[in-house]
Amino acid sequence: MARRSKKWIANRILDIVRESSHAVIEGGLAHPGHLPLTLDIRFNTGQRRSFDLYFWTVSHGGASRSEGEFRIQITFPRHGQTIRRDRGTVLLLGYHGPMAAVTDDPTASLGTPGSGDVFVAWDPLMHLRVGKSVSVQVPGEVLREAQVRGVYAHFRKCVAGVETVVAMRSARLPAYLRLASAGHSSVSPEELLITVE
Fold first, then answer.
1. Predicted structure pTM score
2. Is 1 contained in some domain?
């Protein structure tokens, strides 16, 4: 899949939230093309929450990796990028475009935005570090299962313990944001699957 620009993914996120029953009060990239996407949402429950979203395109792990390994490569510009933790809930996402129907080829993709695109959420406390280039993986099977089921959780061992990686169809992103108001670790994949927005 071709890498998407920060602006393109930010606009995709904003469109998804606007198409839901929630209202975007304010949303935009901190500086053109630079993270985070600052987002203030008034949920249909009346709650208002602020988020700082960090995101990258999910792509194949590379020629030396297995066919089923996908990842985001977290990088920050060298000119003093910092991770904002003072404004809103910090979340770490990956965007993967539409995948072909379940197939043995995990790199196959087709369709148009919204016809099967998937977002993946990781725990930002385990991965976001300025000055480091960090590769964060997700198996291709997790992407396919999320496309089929709507939400799919994957548990992976990390230095800090076991991380819950949550993959979801793009239509589930507003529910994820509402449930993640207290952070990624507050999201129950089971609740995300049944939450109606």
1. 0.87
2. no
